[in-house]
Amino acid sequence: VYAGATMQDASFGRSGTDALTPTVDELRHAVAVAAGRSPADLLLSGGRLLNVFSGLVEPVDVAVAGRLVAAVLPAGAAPFAALERVDLAGAHLAPGLIDGHVHIESSLVTPAAYARVVLPRGVVGIVNDPHEIANVAGVDGVRWWLACGDGLPFDLWTTAPSCVPSTQLETAGAELGVDEIRDLLAHPRVVGVAELMSFPGVVDGEAAQLAKVAVAEGAGKSVEGHAPGLTGRDLQAYLAAGIGSDHECTRLAEGVEKLAAGAFVMIREGSVTRDLDTLLPLVTPRHADRVGFVTDDRLPHDLLDEGAVDVLVRRAIAGGVDPVYAVRCASWNTARHYRLPRRGAVAPGFFADLLVVDDLARFRVQRVLKHGRWVAGAGATTAWAEAAIAAAAGAAERMPAAAALRGSVRLPDLEGSALAIAAPPAGRRVRVLRPLPGQVVTEALAVMPPLRDGEVVADPDRDLLKLACVHRHGRSAPGTGIGLGLVAGMGLRRGALASSVGHDHHNLMLVGADDASMRRAARRVAELGGGFVVDDGDGIVAELALPIAGLVSDAPIERVVADLAAVDAAVRALGGSGSDALMTLSFLGLAVIPALRVTDHGLVDVVAARLVGLEA
Amino acid sequence: VYAGATMQDASFGRSGTDALTPTVDELRHAVAVAAGRSPADLLLSGGRLLNVFSGLVEPVDVAVAGRLVAAVLPAGAAPFAALERVDLAGAHLAPGLIDGHVHIESSLVTPAAYARVVLPRGVVGIVNDPHEIANVAGVDGVRWWLACGDGLPFDLWTTAPSCVPSTQLETAGAELGVDEIRDLLAHPRVVGVAELMSFPGVVDGEAAQLAKVAVAEGAGKSVEGHAPGLTGRDLQAYLAAGIGSDHECTRLAEGVEKLAAGAFVMIREGSVTRDLDTLLPLVTPRHADRVGFVTDDRLPHDLLDEGAVDVLVRRAIAGGVDPVYAVRCASWNTARHYRLPRRGAVAPGFFADLLVVDDLARFRVQRVLKHGRWVAGAGATTAWAEAAIAAAAGAAERMPAAAALRGSVRLPDLEGSALAIAAPPAGRRVRVLRPLPGQVVTEALAVMPPLRDGEVVADPDRDLLKLACVHRHGRSAPGTGIGLGLVAGMGLRRGALASSVGHDHHNLMLVGADDASMRRAARRVAELGGGFVVDDGDGIVAELALPIAGLVSDAPIERVVADLAAVDAAVRALGGSGSDALMTLSFLGLAVIPALRVTDHGLVDVVAARLVGLEA
After folding, report:
1. CA–CA separation, B592 vs A169, rounded Å?
2. Quick one: what percent of chain B has pLDDT higher than 70?
3. Residue B231 DSSP label
4. Is the distance from CB of B92 to CB of B48 less than 8 angstroms?
5. Could you tell me which of B206, B210, B263, B214 has the C-alpha nearest to residue B236?
6. How far apart are CA B132 and CA B136, in angstroms?
7. Residue A327 and residue A55: Cα distance in Å, rounded?
8. Mean pLDDT value across residues B29-52
9. How far apart are CA A269 and CA A267, in angstroms?
10. Helix, strand, or coil here: A358?
11. What residues have CB less than 8 Å from B101, skipping those under 6 apart?
12. Contacts for A337-340: CB closer than 8 Å, 24+ residues apart
């Protein structure tokens, strides 16, 4: 906790409010400060502003009035009375950063915990897509997630998840149709419809997909895109529907094509997919208004150690991009794309969300002002921000919906032969999933199965393990809801891993060398209300609790990172590849990416888009 | 009427609609055309597109589906089946032009007549501010004006007039308060609150002004600015309120300051105020997204002979601006500023509003496509567009509100001594207005008055004429509503001029050498329901009827221009300066610009902001 920043608290209360746009009283105060009738609440003098409008770096004084910037004038041009003065001594000023596309759930923490870790890095708001929460808990879950933003010194903009469930070959915790999306779009912090991942459906002209566009457009909000590799006529068809952006470009030519076709191109630098270096040539003055920076998915340790959307700004500058344009891509461009009111610039009438950057080349953020308050400095949140975040988190935790989200792992009976796989006729091969290293894609093998007592079993010597996807949302009929198969390449010599994170349906994913270990791990996940669990064959040896919807922790990110490290070590001790093994496991149920998957319905041949039997 | 363009009519009906955003059926059709499942309704091949996103000129084929662009692909990249094909043979393609700020009333015609004259110039939509109509007819008048856009092959975007009346020292036909503005903002074609002209009120923090901002923001719409010469802290205060633009810059430094402070700077080239040459250096790639082009006010003959917002594009190109950026300032930039859905670019999913330009250097518009239909070619509207405009105008004319607007000139009794000015005590000077040539400003003189029979009278030998402002909205008490005075510099040797256009209240403005001529001219204006009338001392010798609200003609612009020419000639024959005399007269009641004015309340000292007596 940064200690030096509670000076302004006494004066702030006058206009403190959680509203997304200023009140008339706030406007009157800002106008009076600019005109010189009232003292500024805070005067930042002698800074060098990265002006996203002029594209220039300008020496300025900035007068803050309540939550707003009242005036930005040439340094020394006008005397300002002020309740608090800070001499920036030539440091740079930049607008607070805004990340245009984030799945917070990938960082395994709540919005409050996320805000706490990214605010010191200069990130004052994000547009998040709670796709995972929606798959577990539907509209109620998304509403609670939105409520997690209430009172935070951080803008939790949200897009309405558009593709829940991802396929009909699984049973997620909920469905979101056009009516639910329309319902969510009425929330003032819901700024659009989230990435329309079913791009084949859009290109095919499916009425259900086009209706989502029409609903968003009727609400005056955006529809975001997701079209990896789409080109030519198919890309034109996708955009013709009215999709406004894409964040899945992995090649420069793809970025150029999408930008020219009118898409706002969001350059992504996540934990796994890293596109910045490839796409950086898109950021030139000629196109600079059509590019945004996003992180999409960041693992907890990357978020903590490396950073969030500030990583892209820093690396873009290092890559030779004019710092004003690098900052624009993570502020004004994104704010304008989503029509975020009075965000994304340091200018009169804008919310006073700004950064003091003492080393522009390295983009080292010294202090962060959010809505006119110091929320971070020297790499940590201020005491005030810490308290505000804790209060917001507490209020969210006390909501009835929070209790419901904690009971989200409801398993069927796994005793007896529930996890048993009957042997195929003698001499027949069976299908086996094999995840490709470092990718989300799997390949489908056909192997002679290890057999024992008329059952297919694991054989660690051949690196074959049993794999199960167990319905955990309480929505499957008795005797159904367990998909079984074999997986190769996971490396475990014994024991089992269990995860309540299982994309996108988030049923319980289980892998193991024996049924007893798998059952123990599954039971432990259920006891935790969700999480990652490692069983070494004799008992539970490591775990990360993810009690909220079985997806995210209720602890600070430092605790999550520490627990994950313990889980990693335990997995490695069993022969597996640490946390990669759990991430790999969480994607083995993703029935929209080739080739073979297991959902709670059974084995899925993704290319054929149908359930298949074990026998190859 | 351009003859060559009804080919597409047969296929158009499928998706013809007046909706501002596409229906799901229209989307499905566009997606199907792009993907190759359906033939395009129109294929434009071999054009060179001015791409407002990439900033480049690109050889392309454009497939149109109903009202929408379905696909824009590299020339020859994909075969398209099409119901109609046009080979552009290397001509340029540009998005249809959009003018960001227009008072149509200054052109003395209806929206339909305005559309008819500007469509062949490539202008497919405007953001108009019906400030004059609002002053005469309030919300009902604005609603009718909006209805004039229904069915037009032209986008009549509208901003809600923000300052009606302009002052409390006049009685206009109506008042528009915050409630009326909120009401208008609910209309889907009302895109914001119009120029907040009372910038001193904003800078002073007047609650009434700030409430207009809050209402617009609550509706997710913009608030436009009007702040001539405002700089420094006052400018910051004005923008701090949340004003998003300005179109009153007359100096480059003013434009630079406003742009850097976050205002969208609209460069204006009207009939009187011409700022383009001065401000053109603002249009560079570094700021090019923050500049728009507007005409504000264009006189009928300028609109007909010189053009509309196309004038700015043409002159910007001639001035050395990259044509793609010149076009952007009159299309995408403006569309994005106002959040006009799917307008301002030629790209998949955008409305098919585009221009074929056969000479880029001179920006000569060959053909114009609006919502997928050919609406103009070779300088004239197509037969289809002509019919559509006539139908829309007819429908507007049949609305009950239209009849009410035709009865808008209701004069008090002007017989007897109604126009008489009692002589001041002997030897006392009186106040005299003198308009400064070529400006809207007047100066206040103090002269010994011409007297006869105990009355102040005109004396053409001294170039002193009687001036009256007669309330004409039926809202003044009996015996009140006539302001009287003397004016110098109008040049008439005899007779009288009358105008029902009288900024901003639009009471009847009268100037003359004798009361009988003034009465005849006034009566004739009332008979016409509004207009400009010239009486030569013996009777009416020329007139332009402006029967709609006393502000605009119901005739085509060619007729208006011809009638104005006759009025000009008649005024010149009397010693005056032609149509300038009527324009000058129409501004003599503008009680917000120094120094001396006459309203229906009497003489106004604008600087002191109060009514004053005749005696100096």
Report:
1. 70
2. 97
3. -
4. yes
5. B263
6. 7
7. 10
8. 98
9. 7
10. strand
11. B127, B129, B195, B224, B247, B266, B268, B294, B295, B296
12. A337/A100, A337/A222, A337/A244, A337/A245, A337/A264, A337/A292, A338/A100, A338/A127, A338/A157, A338/A191, A338/A192, A338/A222, A339/A191, A339/A220, A339/A221, A339/A222, A339/B220, A339/B339, A340/A98, A340/A125, A340/A155, A340/A157, A340/A191
Q: What number of other Cβ atoms are within 10 A of residue B89's Cβ?
A: 9
Structure tokens at A206: 């499916």
Contacts (Cβ under 8 Å, ≥6 apart) of A397: A554
Angle CA B424–B426–B427, to nearest 5: 105
- In chain A, the N- to C-terminal Cα span, in Å, equals 58
Q: Helix, strand, or coil here: B182?
A: helix
Reduce the DSSP state of residue B250 to 3 states and report it: coil
Q: Can you tell me whether residue B239 is helix, strand or coil?
A: helix
Chain segment A450-462, per-residue pLDDT in tens: 999 999 999 999 9
Phi, psi (deg, nearest 5) at residue B198: -80, 60
- Partner A contacted by B252 (CB < 8 A): no
Q: Which two tokens stand for residue A330?
A: 């993570």
List, as ranges, residues 426-455 from A with C-beta within 8 Å of B. Answer: none
Which sign, positive or negative, has the C-alpha torsion B287, B288, B289, B291?
Answer: positive
pLDDT > 90: percent of chain A: 93
Instruction: Say if the Cβ atoms of B30 and A241 lie within 8 Å.
Output: yes
Tell me which amino acid residue B43 is: L
Q: Pairing between strand B123-128 and B97-102?
A: parallel
User: Tokens in use for B497?
Assistant: 């001029």
Instruction: State the CB neighbour count (10 A cutoff) for residue B364.
Output: 16
Chain A, 36 to 95: residues with Cβ < 8 Å from chain B are 36-37, 51, 53-56, 58, 65, 68-73, 77-78
Mean pLDDT of all residues in B16-39: 91
Q: At what angle do helices B24-35 and A232-240 cross, to 10 degrees?
A: 170
How many other CB atoms sit within 10 Å of the CB of residue A596? 22
Check residue A505 and give left, alpha or beta (phi > 0: left; psi -120 to 50: alpha).
alpha
Answer whether A158's CB lies under 8 Å from A128's CB: yes
Q: What CA–CA distance (Å, rounded) separates B591 from B603?
A: 9
CA–CA separation, A153 and A145 (whole Å): 15
Minimum Cα–Cα distance from A333: chain B residue: B289
Answer yes or no: do A78 and B233 touch at CB < 8 A.
yes
Q: In Å, how far is A27's CA from the nearest CA of chain B?
A: 5
Strand ranges (DSSP E) for B406-561? 421-422, 430-435, 442-447, 451-452, 455-456, 464-470, 482-488, 496-499, 508-512, 531-535, 540-545
Beta bridge pairs of residue B499: B509, B532
Q: Match 């009909």 to its residue by tokens.
A: A168
**Cut 0.90: pTM above it:** yes
